[in-house]
Amino acid sequence: MSVKFDISFAKSAKLEGGLAILLKLSGDATAAGASEADPAGIVSRAAEIAKFSGKSMATLDLIAPQGSSLDRLVVLGLGKADALTAYDWIRAGGAAAASVKNVTKVAIYLDAPGATVGASEAAGFALGMLLRAYSFDTYKTKKNDDDDKSSKTVKVTIVTAEHSAAKKAFADSEAIAGGVLLARDLVNLPPNALGPVEFADKAKELEKLGCEVEILTEKEMKKLGMGALLGVAQGSVRPPRLAIMHWKGGKAKEAPVAFIGKGVVFDTGGISIKPGAGMEDMKGDMGGAAAVTGLMHTLAARKAKVNAIGIIGLVENMPDGNAQRPGDIVTTMSGQTIEIINTDAEGRLVLADALYYCNDRFKPRFMINLATLTGAIMVALGNLHAGLFSNDDNLSSQLTGVGNVTGERLWRMPLGKDYDKIIDSKFADMKNTGGRYGGAITAAQLLQRFVGDTPWAHLDIAGTAMNSPSNEINQSWGSGYGVRLLDELVRAHYEG
Ligand code: BES
Ligand code: MN
Ligand code: ZN
Fold first, then answer.
1. What does the pLDDT look like over 427-479, one tens digit per residue?
2. Which long-range contacts (CB under 8 A, 24 or more apart) does 58-62 make?
3. Above 60 in pLDDT, residue 148?
């Protein structure tokens, strides 16, 4: 599917051919919009014959329904009214989008009798449609036979009593979708097209939305003493960049919130080279940086009332005559030294300098970093929860909370002195790996050594940023994980 939805909201729709989608609760006899879209009562008869009860996200698809001018009529189940969450409305939009095929016009009736449908539910539904419509086909020169050949743009009318409020709320949906889809694009792009310089250029484009964007070059980072980040970059012919995105939507004197992303545009492992099988996936090792960039897009696009910093460390990890070696000792910007045990544990080196720089320069209210940091987090949690590590119970519970609201779920993992000891080094202040056991935790312990007393959370998104199971709102390899989560965090707890 490669469609673009042109979405509007109205209190009724003109139906001449095309597709109508009617939402229906389970256990409820009637669907939304029955009087307008189904005056002949086709749905109730069809539902009975098909034993369609309106289970959550189930569809009943009627083609050329008799006695109706419609080409197709789809009933979409919402499940039970009292179990309906904000995320379910987003998923429902995604499920509805999936049934839009070979039509140019769709009317969607939201107001299922018995359901509470306000502006935010309608805007969430529309967001789900925008997210589902995404597909990364930039590099496909031929279309598949089963692709929808009918149209590029589909006109969608969402019919609901709250149509004017919904239209207003939809502006935020567009800002969120813009950020998520940007993050997906960045993750999906091949590594030859997206090096550190090209990624920094993408960050620079946020100036169009009113962000201030600074790009630090290798020379400037050298001057700052970012020996850990530069050590990773030194094996690549493509020079590193540090991008600093600044959105000033809050009060002038208010300290900013800060988001920091691992942006390894490709991770070969370096001299401790990775096995060949599946190495192509390491083009997604900038998923943290992609989420931060997408989030900054969203905050700026919806003019969030907050001061926010986004910092992304952009490097390529390559084996080379000039690459760093196991045994090397690097000095970070903080002054602390790190012994390199394994050059494949590079993300934490990039973040060590990025986190310290952020804290030192901006004195933020909190720092949240996102990183495809360890394979170990996938062993622990699979790819349905990201790992959450934090030095602050309040920030941690806020994050877990918005994770449940957005469906971008988090699971808190432990930190502590005994884990920290594991990365002490014989030759330097610390070493960059702590062995196989608890690999996600020892990685987090290293990061914690660079955040001081600032409230901080580390999200290990190795399992969720890419290659996670597809669902109603995402069918793409790169998921854009983290954008909706952190937008909701800001909206719920740090705005205004
Ligand atoms: N980028 C990888 C982690 C990763 C693996 C992300 C698979 C997504 C999918 C990271 O840089 C890495 O190589 N980590 C090593 C650390 C080890 C050498 C201590 C790992 O997890 O194996
Ligand atoms: Mn690595
Ligand atoms: Zn990596």
1. 999 999 999 999 999 999 999 999 999 999 999 999 999 999 999 999 999 99
2. 59/95, 59/99, 61/99
3. no
Statement: residue 6 has pLDDT above 60: yes
Share of the chain above pLDDT 90, in %: 94
* Closest ligand to the CA of 264: 3
- What pLDDT does 379 receive? 98
CA–centroid distance, 373 to ligand 2, in Å, is 8
Q: 274 catalytic, yes or no?
A: yes
Residue 6 to residue 21: CA distance in whole angstroms: 16
Residues with CB under 5 A from ligand 2 (ion): 267, 344, 346
Count the neighbouring beta carbons within 10 Å of the beta carbon of residue 448.
17
Handedness of CA 59, 64, 66, 67 (dihedral sign): positive
Ligand 1 centroid to Cα of residue 261, in Å, is 15
Q: Tell whether ligand 1 has an atom less than 6 A from the beta carbon of residue 387.
A: no
Query: Looking at 80, 204, 238, 274, which residue is catalytic?
Result: 274
Rounded Cα distance, 114 and 25, in Å: 7
At 272, the amino acid letter reads: S
| Active site annotation includes 204 | no
Report the DSSP pairing between strands 386-390 and 456-460. antiparallel
- Whether pTM > 0.70 for this model: the answer is yes
Q: Judging by beta carbons within 10 Å of its beta carbon (0-12, 13-18, 19+), is residue 313 exposed, middle or buried?
A: buried
Give the separation between CA 106 and CA 92, rounded to whole angstroms.
Answer: 15
Distance 378 CA to ligand 1 centre (A): 10
Exposure b/e, 376-388, CB count within 10 A at least 16 = b = bbbebbebebbbb
Q: Using CA atoms, how far apart are residues 54 and 58, in angstroms rounded to an integer?
A: 6
